[in-house]
């Protein structure tokens, strides 16, 4: 154990997901793998029906409620299957075959979500930025009042765009918050359903957070498989079957860390600072430029390219030599993507900016 730590290189992790988590969380999680809370057992071998794990699940659910300031109607679940399962589970639970759901198409994740919804009912794409390779968030659109729900992706991980304000609509709002959950305040109670895979800003891969207003459930005609019906998970306290225990535990540690930082308000201030620093460095550079429209730029995933694309490989090599990890952009956008999730320290952003400036000086 000691040797592993002694040899550990210092890395600056800008990866889009799975992504950086607080150092203290890794330390606590490592200890728990060897001896959970002095039980003499590893967290990995502890039964999920034990009082120890029950306490973990209960605290994780109630911390989400506390941090997001949720009302009594909003239930918190930790489910399997990643966010992609929610693309299917949401319409399965909310949309009848003859009904229509409205979707905003702001990237690959939105378009994957609406593709799944088509399996269960009608889909109306009320707006799309596809023609512009998803470099902006559409502003002028209307959501028909008879839509069963309106689905948005609050932060578009691949393109570096983000809804800075949530559109006011008269139908239930469903949001994929995978890559900006817990990073900024939103009026979370105004959403009928929120889902997020843990691996971007909440914990390790393997668990999905679902926040659902229980009043919207139970209104579809189709027979739902037991494991797909949110109501069964609510009834069983998110323990309908064996939960992904380790992923839930590490998510709990991350949520505890977030609370210690001062919660969402406090982390949002730091996140704003990190994003402003990096965007201003890019805007003021002669070599780099962002890909997203300025007003819609994401505070979580900063996507940028080089004005001279032939230099991109060189910069990636330099970044790698400096221990900057995970900044290669998604293949559909190219260039670079620096993800500034909650656990990424301000010092890492400063460091990236220094390396960019140094590179610029030498070319
Ligand atoms: C990563 C991501 C997903 C996919 O998550 P999986 O857990 O891999 O299914 C969905 N939506 C958004 C916005 C994402 O960033």
Structure commentary:
By secondary structure, the protein is an alpha/beta fold. The chain folds into two domains: about 1-15 and about 265-360, Alpha-Beta Complex (Aspartate Aminotransferase, domain 1); about 25-260, Aspartate Aminotransferase, domain 2, CATH 3.40.640. About 35% of the residues lie in helices and about 15% in strands. It contains ten helices and 14 strands. It has helices at about 1-5, 25-35, 50-70, 80-95, 110-115, 230-235, 245-260, 265-285, 310-320, 345-360; strands spanning about 10-15, 75-80, 100-105, 120-130, 150-155, 155, 160, 175, 195, 210-215, 290, 300-305, 325, 335-340. The strands form four sheets. The chain has a seven-stranded mixed beta sheet, sandwiched between helices. A three-stranded antiparallel beta sheet has the order 11-12-14, covered by helices on one side. Strand 6 (about 155) and strand 7 form a beta hairpin. The longest helix has 21 residues, at about 265-285. The radius of gyration is 21 Å and the shape is globular. Pyridoxal-5'-phosphate binds near residues 17, 83, 153, 179 and 197. Pyridoxal-5'-phosphate binds near residues 84, 109, 176 and 197. It comes from Ginsengibacter hankyongi. Belongs to the class-V pyridoxal-phosphate-dependent aminotransferase family. SerC subfamily. It is found in: Cytoplasm. GO terms for molecular function: O-phospho-L-serine:2-oxoglutarate aminotransferase activity; pyridoxal phosphate binding.
